[in-house]
Prior knowledge:
By secondary structure, the chain is α+β, with helices and mostly antiparallel strands. The protein is built from 40 helices and 34 strands. A nine-stranded mixed sheet has the order 15-34-33-32-16-28-31-30-29, sandwiched between helices. Residues about 1-20, about 1070-1080, about 1110-1115 and about 1185-1205 have low confidence and may be disordered.
Amino acid sequence: xxxxxxxxxxxxxxxxxxxxxxxxxxxxxxxxxxxxxxxxxxxxxxxxxxxxxxxxxxxxxxxxxxxxxxxxxxxxxxxxxxxxxxxxxxxxxxxxxxxxxxxxxxxxxxxxxxxxxxxxxxxxxxxxxxxxxxxxxxxxxxxxxxxxxxxxxxxxxxxxxxxxxxxxxxxxxxxxxxxxxxxxxxxxxxxxxxxxxxxxxxxxxxxxxxxxxxxxxxxxxxxxxxxxxxxxxxxxxxxxxxxxxxxxxxxxxxxxxxxxxxxxxxxxxxxxxxxxxxxxxxxxxxxxxxxxxxxxxxxxxxxxxxxxxxxxxxxxxxxxxxxxxxxxxxxxxxxxxxxxxxxxxxxxxxxxxxxxxxxxxxxxxxxxxxxxxxxxxxxxxxxxxxxxxxxxxxxxxxxxxxxxxxxxxxxxxxxxxxxxxxxxxxxxxxxxxxxxxxxxxxxxxxxxxxxxxxxxxxxxxxxxxxxxxxxxxxxxxxxxxxxxxxxxxxxxxxxxxxxxxxxxxxxxxxxxxxxxxxxxxxxxxxxxxxxxxxxxxxxxxxxxxxxxxxxxxxxxxxxxxxxxxxxxxxxxxxxxxxxxxxxxxxxxxxxxxxxxxxxxxxxxxxxxxxxxxxxxxxxxxxxxxxxxxxxxxxxxxxxxxxxxxxxxxxxxxxxxxxxxxxxxxxxxxxxxxxxxxxxxxxxxxxxxxxxxxxxxxxxxxxxxxxxxxxxxxxxxxxxxxxxxxxxxxxxxxxxxxxxxxxxxxxxxxxxxxxxxxxxxxxxxxxxxxxxxxxxxxxxxxxxxxxxxxxxxxxxxxxxxxxxxxxxxxxxxxxxxxxxxxxxxxxxxxxxxxxxxxxxxxxxxxxxxxxxxxxxxxxxxxxxxxxxxxxxxxxxxxxxxxxxxxxxxxxxxxxxxxxxxxxxxxxxxxxxxxxxxxxxxxxxxxxxxxxxxxxxxxxxxxxxxxxxxxxxxxxxxxxxxxxxxxxxxxxxxxxxxxxxxxxxxxxxxxxxxxxxxxxxxxxxxxxxxxxxxxxxxxxxxxxxxxxxxxxxxxxxxxxxxxxxxxxxxxxxxxxxxxxxxxxxxxxxxxxxxxxxxxxxxxxxxxxxxxxxxxxxxxxxxxxxxxxxxxxxxxxxxxxxxxxxxxxxxxxxxxxxxxxxxxxxxxxxxxxxxxxxxxxxxxxxxxxxxxxxxxxxxxxxxxxxxxxxxxxxxxxxxxxxxxxxxxxx
Length: 1207
């Protein structure tokens, strides 16, 4: 029912979510003689790596290029160029010297470049340390030689000893474990997985008869071997490898032994050798060709929502500057036409009667500017409308916020000793704006610590909680260890659990306890479950698995050998794993385990399938993970034929994957159903409380899992994602396509969605309306037949609703844009969504589609713990990785890392909300103060004939942002409107960021309006007070002195304005931002220190600027400002005017604050007041509430804590 066109569309949409690596390079071949590459079809690179970005020659140009990619830096560079042209050419007049902008711009660029240089120097040192590490190679005579890592090339044979790191990508030739040819490696440096992986030397499987008795087991014998190897070109796939090795020995140069190479023969650079004395490996990839380097691409660059907002504000301010400059230019032209005849002293009409002849010579040689050139003059004059220091200040603030996250002990997991980690500092504020969370289930919501709980064997369930003794796991064990012929089904069931896996057993050297190193917790749980049921996996030798069958009496047991003839591995596409093995009695059998939807399709037919389906549904309702087991016996002739096809597929080149899949399909057929396993994966501590609190914060949570629908629903209930009484709708692929569409149409109407409200684009709205009409016609007006789907009731319209959809239903509905918009209109009205049976590709696709279809576009967060979550994490605006049992792939792709899901609550509600509000204050104030400055200059132009003259001296213009830096900086790193306990009690406060209450168009216009009002007060009050001045050099109404007096009121009130916006400054602030006792406070961490510093810095700058005005300054032309600072500071009038300006501006602000708080209070304002008064910080017993931090707190939280709604 899905057309070809639709499938192409789906493929295209998937490609937008994923990155595919394609290569056109031909397969490589290499001839090795005497441990030296004699011939190859490629040019090899050395084994050095380079992670640094710059060198001595490229640092300056490349770093400058990176800095000027920012819009603000480009803007100030253009302003600097205009200033230079206006100062040193006759094109137009510049009211400011170039250094007033070049100096601060150079300082900001220098600081940022120095930071990058220091970081890159660390990378250089790390590169040198790695490249000059020592490696052992085998020479032609079989002797060993020590070389540096960077000198290795393909064709070299390397010796690696126990505990050493693999220096390049190797093909494992020989292992010290001569009996088995096995080696054990740890890949934690690559994927974070600490469990050991078993590797197989490719030469160990050679029969000595094939080599004429020649043994290849040591340095010299390997050096004498003639090796031709053909293998795939370099790529970034770390879990696969394909190649073929052709071996010749000197005794018989015509006989060629052809050996297939696969991932188990391949050692990755960066992995470490464990539990093996030594190995010999052939270098096949070096340096930039290694899997580690090819796979170490950086995560896609994410522009934070805050950066996006700031960029838009910069564009708006730039547009405003253009408008204001144009208005000023027009005003100049108009004023000049009216008053030109009176401006003879400015060389206008200087030859008229009454004008002294002195002006003739000066005006004839003077410069004249066109009216149009004044536009550039005004553009330069108002250049400070955009704050030059904003971007670098935000960077520093983000770094400090990331420091808080990294060092928050309340997000430190004591069990795994794992702290929280901010891997990307520029996304901190976005944590306070999250609208949708996409979460994996296994390992994210659950502990990923699996335990075998139940089994379905021959139509009987064993291990149910209320099972009678004949049906518990002990009874199943008894059936396994007694006469196998009488209990064949039970024995076969547990045998598959014990044999069909890739687990590596180890013995603890101290306790001799058996430890299993498994690639997944599921496999470990099944192997341990098999041991509990009487068949213990105790050893793996070469191609044999040793199973100990427990004795009936309980002591000792019998060892059984199962020869593994072939292993067909698990992957996310196959969703199953199989082994072909020879049983102790000689029978050849294929054993298979996998997802029920897959294995059922491989069965020859089974009477037990219906009952097993019932059992699987019951297991799923209890939240258990299930696998179906099946098997089939092969005849010797059938196996030989298949074995040849499998070997040919293993040794093929180019189309190996396809041929292996075809060979696997030939043997994985007509299977006999054996039973099903059920594994429990418990929820992490605090997950239900965390999800409930996130829901109260207004955040929508999506759980994306590959589990069955019933399992996902039960997990949703247990973690409070699906709360009691919550209406639940289901879109199921088990229903027919017509039933699915009918359910979709019904849900659309019940959700209250409509094209008029949800779709703004006219063309898309018409497409949605047309699709709705088509759906109505297909269902002939009947909307009551939904099959396996379920819909809400009309009475549910006032409740928070939930929806469950499976992956196949998504495939059916996705592909048509109008249908997608209908579906996401429904989803946007749901409080909780569960997507089950979804693939990693679909997880990423869902995130992309939410960002595309949900309006307004929400800030999305994806959280997961495994490699299958990487695409989802990288697709979301904010990615969070959990340091779990599935390695560090998710962490390495994320922006933030935590150890437990419950820490997400503090990450968002505390660090996210505080960080968002702090950055908002910084952004609002930065644009406010600069708008106030630009408005003051604009007002002043009315009194200068719109000549473009600046009210302030060049030194003030250059240092203006630095005079006000420390106060707003301290507020932006320390401020708290409410404490963390209060936010946890009332998570509705998170709406301030989710709904953009602290940074929006209305608020920005309010700040700009106040800037204009304050600018008028700051200018006109001093102007009115000094209107009776004589204009004498020592009079405050003179040009430079008047500007200095205005600057005093300006700077002092700007500092006071920061205090008005600060919510946490009653006492000096410690470095943690918490109010502390005075004896524990460092003065440098005090808000009052910042206020005093800013004030002293300004007045000291004012005095020094006047002192150097005698002409000694070589940066600014300060002669007109000589002695101005000392003069005005010595006048009591200056201090009186400054006080009046502060009082008047403060009065305006107080009136505004009073009107807003008393007549138009927001819920956030009310909450801040209640928190300050302590009205909500006690429980019903009068005790102060606190946040749960310890295990005991969390247990108490589960029993007693109830979060109230804030009316």
